[in-house]
Write a structure and sequence with these properties.
With 146 residues, the protein is of the alpha+beta class. It contains three helices and seven strands; from the N terminus they run βββββββααα. Strands 4-3-2-1-5 form a five-stranded antiparallel sheet, with no helix packed on it. It has a two-stranded antiparallel sheet with strand order 6-7. Helix 2 crosses helix 3. The protein starts with 5 loop residues before the first strand and ends in a 21-residue tail after the last helix.
């Protein structure tokens, strides 16, 4: 599994594995351990994790979510010390440590809270996506090696 197979759905908590597209939308599977399947229509806002970035103040303007989650994993090895009840200042300090040049005006505490929740979910159910070895360019790898 890699970041291009994982998605977030606006209005739904957690992450989903993308199974198949349909004529009317896409079939997703929850990553919360229940493995429930759901079909989301074309009007739902589905964001693939490989397409998400966090705003920065440098020349590039943003850093891919994949890079940030992998850096968090290298630094914290699955234990960020943050919880669902962590306050905004604690969350901002955490992201400032991981990504010192993030744009504090465009990245809100709620965004950081979601980032931390996604990281913890990935550590629990798909830790292999957080290691850089499994996330190298997989487009040219043979099917059995992706």
């Amino acid at each position: 599994m890699d970041f291009s197979e994982l998605a977030s759905v606006s209005g739904k908590s957690g992450l989903f594995k993308i199974l198949n597209p349909t004529r009317a939308g896409v079939i997703l599977e929850t990553l919360d351990g229940t493995n429930k399947k759901l079909v989301v229509g074309m009007n739902a806002k589905v964001s693939v994790l490989s397409d998400i970035s966090i705003y920065t103040n440098d020349g590039d303007g943003s850093v891919p979510l994949k890079d940030i989650l992998q850096k968090i994993h290298v630094e914290f090895k699955g234990d960020t010390g943050l919880t669902k009840t962590s306050d905004g200042e604690e969350l901002k300090s955490f992201l400032k440590f991981v990504l010192p040049n993030y744009d504090e005006d465009r990245v809100y505490a709620s965004d950081i809270k979601k980032l931390v929740a996604w990281y913890h979910q990935l550590v629990d159910v798909a830790p292999e996506v957080l290691t850089s070895e499994t996330n190298k360019d997989t487009d040219t790898a043979p099917e059995g090696e992706k």
